[in-house]
């Protein structure tokens, strides 16, 4: 116990939600206690996404089973019809064929062709982990999650994250993994692999967006924070245009415009890879904005029609 006390004398324990972290008194690793509302909101959205993902999977399985059952029954009925016409069967044989079809329709509740592909737990990526608090809270407070990958390109942050994973016990060591790597490279090397990607950088997320929209699985969730509100709200239009591809204007609606600029930038990056986004939740809070979007893949023709219709809709609004 004395050795443990000596090791912990330079640290203080910070508790948030169900997770606890060891924070060094020199504060070598970045930790922002104000972002607690950000993390609480992310946990609520993640829980809703997991439930929605399960509902969509069950609906898809039911749809496939129904279509497979109809195809099988129609194939059997066609075969029986052909046998009756070629062989010139009598009325008794036709009745037997009808009874056989009825029996097959009754057994459709337990068909041999039923699709029972199991839904895998969602894989989560936190691109900028720092102390690992966000990943630890996901592991301890969100049920149904699979592996959580926490990345950082700072050696001290990764060591601190590993320490906090062990400090939170077996419930986190079995789920959370941390690596010392550039998040952009890691996401580019794992396209469409992660069901959830969380971006919470210190400043602008613009340099991570291109790789993030490629790393999200089809129908996955992308969570993104931007804290450079001065740029997004019109203080420096040239910088905003270089980072997000939009030119802001000052006004009472500047925070809403900041949300729209970030969403438009994510959409632009997604369109380059024949993908599009569906906003789930967009929030301005304290000194930052936070958006939650789902990323889907479409055919090139569908994407072209979508962009044309969106352009016509925007022109109508401007007129």
From TrEMBL:
<keyword id="KW-0808">Transferase</keyword>
<feature type="region of interest" description="Disordered">
    <location>
        <begin position="60"/>
        <end position="92"/>
    </location>
</feature>
<keyword id="KW-1133">Transmembrane helix</keyword>
<dbReference type="GO" id="GO:0000049">
    <property type="term" value="F:tRNA binding"/>
</dbReference>
<feature type="transmembrane region" description="Helical">
    <location>
        <begin position="287"/>
        <end position="309"/>
    </location>
</feature>
<dbReference type="InterPro" id="IPR002905">
    <property type="entry name" value="Trm1"/>
</dbReference>
<keyword id="KW-0694">RNA-binding</keyword>
<keyword id="KW-0812">Transmembrane</keyword>
<protein>
    <recommendedName>
        <fullName>tRNA (guanine(26)-N(2))-dimethyltransferase</fullName>
        <ecNumber>2.1.1.216</ecNumber>
    </recommendedName>
</protein>
<keyword id="KW-0820">tRNA-binding</keyword>
<dbReference type="InterPro" id="IPR029063">
    <property type="entry name" value="SAM-dependent_MTases_sf"/>
</dbReference>
<dbReference type="GO" id="GO:0032259">
    <property type="term" value="P:methylation"/>
</dbReference>
<feature type="compositionally biased region" description="Polar residues">
    <location>
        <begin position="76"/>
        <end position="89"/>
    </location>
</feature>
<keyword id="KW-0472">Membrane</keyword>
<dbReference type="Pfam" id="PF02005">
    <property type="entry name" value="TRM"/>
</dbReference>
<keyword id="KW-0949">S-adenosyl-L-methionine</keyword>
<feature type="compositionally biased region" description="Basic and acidic residues">
    <location>
        <begin position="60"/>
        <end position="74"/>
    </location>
</feature>
<keyword id="KW-0819">tRNA processing</keyword>
<keyword id="KW-0489">Methyltransferase</keyword>
<dbReference type="GO" id="GO:0160104">
    <property type="term" value="F:tRNA (guanine(26)-N2)-dimethyltransferase activity"/>
</dbReference>
<comment type="similarity">
    <text>Belongs to the class I-like SAM-binding methyltransferase superfamily. Trm1 family.</text>
</comment>
<dbReference type="GO" id="GO:0008033">
    <property type="term" value="P:tRNA processing"/>
</dbReference>
